[in-house]
Write a structure and sequence with these properties.
This protein is mainly α. The protein has three helices and two strands. Strands 1-2 form a two-stranded antiparallel sheet. Strand 1 and strand 2 form a beta hairpin.
């Protein structure tokens, strides 16, 4: 597995294993901008904002029954 694939495998694994916003935030730099599936943007200025944002995303996905995901044609 090359480093690109390893990075995304680690990212996926952390999302599934922890569902922990702080752990997920380690993959991001602050400030950052994220484009959501509905076309909206989230502008996150601090590491704490990034962690809180992705904790909410992780909690929402889990409540919707999404516990695993995979990349296709990465």
């Amino acid at each position: 597995m090359n480093t690109f694939e390893a990075f995304f495998e680690s990212y996926r694994s952390d999302w599934e294993a922890a569902r922990d916003g702080n752990r997920i935030a380690e993959f991001y730099h602050a400030p950052c901008l994220t484009l959501r599936a509905d076309g909206s943007f989230a502008s996150l200025q601090t590491k704490d904002e990034v962690a809180r944002f992705f904790q909410t995303v992780a909690d929402t996905l889990y409540k919707q029954g999404i516990e695993q995901w995979a990349s296709k044609d990465l």
